[in-house]
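Lecture 7, part B: from sequences to assemblies.

Below are the input chains for today's worked example.
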Amino acid sequence: MTQLWDFSGGIHPEQHKHLSTACPIRQSSLPERLILPLQQHIGAPAEACVAVGDRVLKGEVIATVPGAVGVPVHAPTSGTIEAISMHPVPHPSGMSDRCITIAPDGLDQWTGREPIADYHALDRDTVLERIRQYGIAGLGGAGFPTNIKLRPPKDRKVSTLILNGAECEPYITADDMTMRERADEIVAGLRVMAWVLRPERCVIAIEDNKPEAIEAVKIATENTRTEVVVIPTKYPSGGEKQLIQILTGMEVPSGGIPADIGVMCQNTGTAIAVSRAIHQGEPLISRVVTVTGRAVSSPGTFDVLLGTPVEHLLAQTGLDSQQLHRLILGGPMMGYTLETPGVPVVKTTNCLIAATAEELPAPPPEQPCIRCGMCAEVCPMELLPQQLFWHSRAGELEKAEHLNLFDCIECGACSYVCPSSIPLVQYYRAAKGEIRVQQAELLKADRARERFEARQARLEREQHEKEQRRKDRAKAAAEAQAKQQAKAEDQPSDDHAARSTLVAAALARKKAKAGKTDAAGPATTDQAEPPDLEALEKQLAQATAKLNTMQSMLEDARAENADNVEQLERAVAKNHDRVKRAETALAGARN
Amino acid sequence: MALAQQSSPHARHARSTSNVMLWVMLAALPGLLAQVIFFGWGNLINVVWCMALAIGAEAAMLRLRGRPVKFFLQDNTAAVTGFLLGLCLPPLVPFWVSATAVLAAIVLAKQLYGGTGSNPFNPAMVGYALVLISFPLAMTTNWAEPGLVWGTAPGIWETLKVIASGQQTAVDAYTMATPLDQYKHNISSRTAAEVLQHPTFGEGIARGWEWVNAGFLAGGLLLLWQRLITWHIPVSFLAGLAIMSLAFGSNPDQYAPVSMHLLAGGTMLGAFFIATDPVSAATSHQGKLIYGAGIGILIYLIRTWGAYPDAVAFAVLLMNFAVPFIDYYTPPRTYGHHKARRGLPRKGQG
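Predicted structure of the full complex, as structure tokens:
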């Protein structure tokens, strides 16, 4: 007997599973149209590689993924591409996404299938690539590409491979029925995965409310080292983290992945898809879906081609649309309501509940939280739902985050037992969304600030460099002037020498000018003018003449009380300065 | 037909708050029955009077606050507050004292803080503490003399007359100090054996009181069995009180013995019905243990060295003050985390 651990909390909701286990898995009929969303997995959406009007065969690739994360989409049957357009897809928001619509021709004609006779002879990457090319993404719910999941980080060794057949949510029986009828295929798929991962331990975990499935899987695993572990029925034992705790007693670190503690969980449906990809050469084009609820007269489990509209499935089970109140995709604990039955079945669709108003009545109005703590008693993650609710509602998001809001798996156990009928999970989702938005904005603001600071630093540096260059130039010029002056004093009467001084001065001027152009800065003063007495005298005369003219103009203007008095005053002052400077320079030169 | 849009989970299976409250009152019935048997009709009259007044006050306050009266009255929380006050108050207390307590509980302690779920203090205990401080004479001298309801206890009409007369001190013939009071005020000058001669103690630990406490204990076990409360608060409450008594008051010639602490006062009522009020109690398991133990310890301190013979109300209110603090420092360790994240979030880390 394998040792089992318990996880804290959990609930025992009414099962309602017998509704859909009465008869074996039925083959769903071919609908008029198959609608295949280009994104049925986590990662980049696939891109259509067919055109409208093309004829495609069953199993042919109709969309490929250019990036590393993502899997292609295959035609579930032979037919014609009718459209590549936006269509409502299964999503809690009721959004539309790009889909390929195929009009089946009814021939169900296969493209060439290439089974692998002995995968042991291949290398693992080839097998993983096939798993990717055959469109396999986790059938359990998230739709993570299986080839990537099967290749954990290099430093992580998977020692325990778990096949999750717990199926703890009420109503859902897809895994149960699959295990009953297709246990051999499940085990074959598990073998392939085990060969890729080489774990020490392979476990198939099944809740004890599925005796037929347990029996079938036990028979299929006879004479293998695979353990079939029967676990107590308690929701959410099928949650990945809870199942790992039940089977190993270990906890997946917060924010980590199971491979961090050497564990990997795979879904039974995924195992079948892997087996078919390898042994039959068939891509993932169909899956098992439970159609149940009191609003259908013959609920059951169906083998459904991907892309089959939900309404087509409902029609086969005898839907009483008068009774239909709520249409849920997934289970009653974590599934979401559909706005339209026109959405297709995708790789992650496991259950469809057509519920009547009596079956799943609208919740009574929300009452105030009395902190009774029943939510905390049932929380499988050992959170304090009542405190999370309190902080989420008050907008104290950092406190909610501090109480590990992001560890919430949204299993709904807290809302299930809340006596005040508070939609707790909805509050947590809203708070998480709000925090994510805030974080994104914070990141954006941080980047903007960094950019701004970098720019500011660059401008300052440039300004500083410019200043430095100006100073250097001024210094050089002053030195040159001093030199010239000294030379002029040495040979004041030598005409030739004076001329050469002029040449030197001109060179210095040119040099200074060149420096000026380089710097593109404020013009340097004319300090570098050579002490040419003649020129200086001429300058002085000119300046004095100009000053006189200006002064007389100013007097005229004042007499006429004209409006350019101020300008003239400034001009006079300027010329006055100029005269002063010329006089000083001349005096200096004469000395 | 438009399909209903709802957020998961779609299935619900919960007791309503009103159902929870009905169970609390149901569970308190054995204790009330014992009170009636041993102390006459007073408590039953108080319960009816307090409940009626509590519901009336709640309705009036909801109306004043502009809240849907029927919707909020349905949750039965006001009825429970009145019910518990009726159980706590002395059986022969004048009607206006109990009325003051109820109004303080519903109007001040509950509705002015925002109604159901928003009160930081236990409303019933706010009301009780208020009248205990304001009318000490009426609150400490009106315990009926223990006597079987079919024997020496006053009849229903007589009891009604005493309560309705509004006198602070009822007729001496009917009343008697509580055992804890009696013990506390006499032990300093006498030995335990002498003190226990007083008729209030009867044959066992404290006449009538032991049955009342047994009744509330039984009701508390019912609540536990129904999973309406967890064991943490009652157990730590009783353990705190018992350990304090054994550690500091083991000499019966100086202090009341542990049996009297557990079975002679409002201990069981406090442990299972008062301290477990979830709104004003700590929330995590660890927090509940601290909260309950704190109440037990405070009760012993106040009973033994304080001025009041009983102390459930003060102890509960004092620990109510500490609840936000306790809550911040006692979150459970979440799955996948090495340890619990105590305290407040620090700046810059989520």
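Note for the exam: Chain B has two domains: 17-176, 179-330. Keep this in mind when comparing with the next example.
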